[in-house]
Amino acid sequence: MADIKSVKTKIAAQIEAATDLQTLDDIRVSALGKKGEVSLMMRELGKMSVEEKKVMGPALNGLKNDLNALVDAKKSDLENAALEAALSSETMDMSLPVLRHQGTLHPVPQVMEEMAVIFSDMGFSVAEGPDIEDDFHNFTALNFPPGHPARDMHDTFFMSAIEGEEEKKVLRTHTSPVQIRTMINQKPPIRIIAPGRTYRCDSDQTHTPMFHQVEGLVIDKDIHMGHLKGVLMDFISAFFETDVDVQFRPHHFPFTEPSAEMDVRYERDGAAIKIGQGDKWMEILGCGMVHPNVLRACGLDPDEYQGFAFGMGVDRLAMLKYGMPDLRDMFAADTRWLGHYGFDPLLQANLATGLS
Ligand code: DAH
């Protein structure tokens, strides 16, 4: 019995003195393991008389249980202390940007952002308008008279009739109605771009029923076609991040006079299209001087104010810049396609370190 007491005191002191989990476990094994001190003492029971066993059996079991309890208590103390130490030394700054992320930015918002960066550097701001438009903003105010054949060319989606309203709303067929909303709500000088979704009932390899445009509008007292050409030439070289040779070709739009289309020089390099140099021309956008009828529809006096406007397809420019072969893939929401053509959402387009 005296032995049991001194063994308990000795081992309890060792347990108490342990400063790490490994040392604690070594102590446990040397006391309670198969060949441990306590286990060896228990083996002695076999040699004892029945009387002795009655006393020593429970005493040894008690010793074993007490030591196990002490080890368990010490173990949880040490684990808690280790956790406390880790919590106070390992810090985590939740305001830092993530290092690993899977999502990518779709090329359409990427390209819209690139355009906004270029035009804002030239003093433009970004305007927006609704996707569901009325006939006035989408057509009439843009000098498409009722019944004019140019309306049919727009393959318009009409909304169902709303009770009590005579006229059906449309899904805007272009971003040009934002010109009208801006001129009605804002006094010149005006310098805006309007990126957004547009809709036409059309679908094949180069057309999707929903697509994206960026509109531009500049109105002031002394704006002429030289400004139009300068802005668009600077824009297109900045966008393609290389010198791009362009030509302006006469065209017709109801809302501009004169009207033009701008073509860029390009060449084919195998399956790839290289923009900038070459012997072929590709149409890239429509533009012109805002028609006096459009200014009048917005309450502006054409003898006092003039300006220019332009409109371009974002999806097509994205395909040309980043080499995507099929327009329809753009809107298929395929994560493999997005993984390949998508952009790092944390690297925002800017003119200082490069757009893309
Ligand atoms: N709205 C025209 C379209 O969707 C594009 C366009 C052409 C816009 C000439 C303009 C412009 O502002 O001046 O086909």
From TrEMBL:
Is Magnesium included in the keywords of this UniProt record? yes
Task: Please give the Pfam families that the UniProt record associates with this protein.
Answer: Phe_tRNA-synt_N, tRNA-synt_2d
Q: Does the keyword Cytoplasm apply?
A: yes
Tell me the enzyme class: ligase
Gene Ontology BP, a term: phenylalanyl-tRNA aminoacylation
EC number(s) recorded for this UniProt protein: 6.1.1.20
Q: Where is it chiefly localized? A: cytoplasm
Q: Which residues belong to any copy of the Aminoacyl-transfer RNA synthetases class-II family profile domain? A: 118-345
Which UniProt keyword terms apply here? Answer: Aminoacyl-tRNA synthetase, ATP-binding, Cytoplasm, Ligase, Magnesium, Metal-binding, Nucleotide-binding, Protein biosynthesis
Name the coenzymes or cofactors required.
Mg(2+)
What CDD domains has UniProt attached to this entry? PheRS_alpha_core
- Per the similarity annotation, which family is this? Belongs to the class-II aminoacyl-tRNA synthetase family. Phe-tRNA synthetase alpha subunit type 1 subfamily.
Name it.
Answer: Phenylalanine--tRNA ligase alpha subunit
- The protein's gene is named pheS
